[in-house]
Amino acid sequence: VQLVESGGGLVQAGGSLRLSCTTSGFAMDYYAIGWFRQAPGKEREGVSCISSSETNTHYAESVNGRFAIHWDKAKNTVYLLMNSLNAEDTAVYYCATDLDAHPLGPCTLVSDPYDYWGQGTQVTVSS
User: What pLDDT does 37 receive?
Assistant: First the structure.
């Protein structure tokens, strides 16, 4: 099982980025995917998640209305579109998979259930 994030970089405040999480080594159809982030000196925070049926998504209050998660099953890739970025969004962003998530059930922004993690991609927002 492998998850690879990409799409991070340096962006000015108010700008946008699209992060990608490409998976391999398992069937994505029956698992949930979550995006998390960790800023220097802070604990890891759940940002967004999506169930494999794509009927359930969840966003942290801090990003709700600005971020959108999308799953392209044909490409085995989950995207996180981030708009109206601000300095507080600066962090390393990770994607992870919850292998026990029911396809129709809610996904969680709690990190404990997630089994496999990517290496992370840095997002830096300049003010």
Answer: 98
Residue 51, both tokens: 């169930």
| Half-sphere exposure at residue 98, Cβ-oriented, CA atoms within 13 angstroms | 24
How many Cβ atoms sit within 10 Å of the Cβ of residue 68?
Answer: 15
Q: Count the Cβ atoms, other than its own, within 10 Å of residue 61.
A: 6
d(CA 59, CA 67): 8
Looking up tokens 């129709």, which residue turns up?
104
Judged on CB neighbours under 10 Å (0-12, 13-18, 19+), 47 is buried
Band of residue 27 on the pLDDT scale cut at 50, 70, 90: low
Q: Which of 67, 116, 65 lies closest to 91, judged by CA?
A: 67
DSSP-derived 3-state class of residue 92: strand
Beta-carbon contacts of residue 119 (< 8 Å; ≥ 6 apart): 4, 5, 94
